[in-house]
Write a structure and sequence with these properties.
25% strand, 7 helices, 6-stranded parallel sheet, 32% helix, alpha/beta, Dihydrodipicolinate Reductase, domain 2, 2 domains, Rossmann fold
Length: 256
Amino acid sequence: MTEQLSAPLPVAVLGANGRMGAEAVKAIEAAPDMLLVAALGRGDSLDQLTVAGAKFVVDLTVPESTEANVRYAVEHGIHAVVGTTGWDGGKLSALEGQLENHPETGVLIAPNFALGSVLASAFAAKASKYFESVEIIELHHPDKVDAPSGTAVRTAELIAAERSAAQMPPSPDATTSELAGARGCEVDGIRVHSVRLRGLVAHQEVLLGSAGEQLTLRHDSFDRASFMPGVLLGLRKVAAHPGLTVGLDGYLDLGL
């Protein structure tokens, strides 16, 4: 008897005219287990999602519209994979409340889809409890509108949680006089520094230091194509993870 192949996943892309959205459209069209049913840009009606029969949506829009986009998807039983920043604690809590009324729908909000970046952040968090000092430097292209990056914020949160669980004290810092911004910003007690430079795409270093040694964990994305394996992985797994998942590491078996 011939084995019956599963029907391809009907996927829509929001923000299809942007740099990331255009890459996502190409990746989904090239994936044999997916079918691109809609590619929406700014101003297009979300009702096109239901008309097209989308069961999965990738949101790569802007912070001002991502919450409404995802809430629409959840309301219509469409699984969402989200790479747009702007999801603070209040918005995440409200989304979790909405998902309670749609228990079969999954939402993944991922600050970064590059698998190497996700792994580097996870490794840095685990390593941080063995070092006295830790700081993050994130480097991106100058057209990026938010600082620090969502990846850096996520990395800092993971590091802070690990260090808190290990009862680690704050990184030592004797600074008493500084120009505004010289020491970066603080995310959960972790210093984060942002660089915006023409020619860059997306890069991050986590610097870990103790007496006499330093460990640097760095990840570089040289092209937005590097994010697409993570986007496709998210689409393939989101239906099996109902509710809200923050961070692609939630779908990976890291064994940490």
